[in-house]
Q: What sequence folds into this?
């Protein structure tokens, strides 16, 4: 799983942003399922920054956000992110050691209609 979190940062605050991002990534790195992270800035738009992290799965990422150290070190920074989708499941990977095959999505077919705590039987009509 990949998390891509984008930020709009004043050019004068770039150095401070990198340091806060480094501290946030250090806290996330202590959580189970963390594979790695990066901080980057757009070449053509110096106010456009991002933090990417890789995780074993969605559960690992979501559980990491509840860790005390993450709440202290990363959550304040992540709260300043641009509001857009950030978590992506990897459906194809041709990197070193990857199987280079297309994967089936783990996303439930009823993910857009089911609510938390509600389950639906597959292939069966419900009221």
A:
């Amino acid at each position: 799983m990949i998390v891509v979190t984008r930020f709009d940062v004043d050019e004068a605050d770039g150095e401070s942003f990198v340091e806060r991002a480094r501290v946030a990534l250090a806290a996330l790195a202590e959580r189970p399922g963390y594979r790695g992270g990066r901080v980057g800035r757009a070449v053509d738009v110096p106010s456009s920054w991002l933090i990417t992290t890789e995780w074993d799965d969605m559960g690992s990422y979501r559980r990491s956000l509840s860790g005390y150290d993450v709440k202290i070190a990363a959550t304040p920074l992540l709260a300043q992110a641009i509001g857009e989708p950030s978590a992506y499941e990897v459906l194809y990977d041709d990197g070193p050691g990857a199987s280079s095959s297309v994967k089936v999505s783990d996303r439930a077919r009823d993910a857009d209609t089911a609510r938390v705590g509600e389950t639906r039987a597959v292939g069966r009509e419900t009221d």
Q: What stands out?
A: Residues 2-88 form a domain with the Alpha-Beta Plaits fold (CATH 3.30.70.100). The beta strands are 2-8, 34-41, 48-55, 87-88. The longest helix spans residues 14-29. The chain has a mean pLDDT of 88.
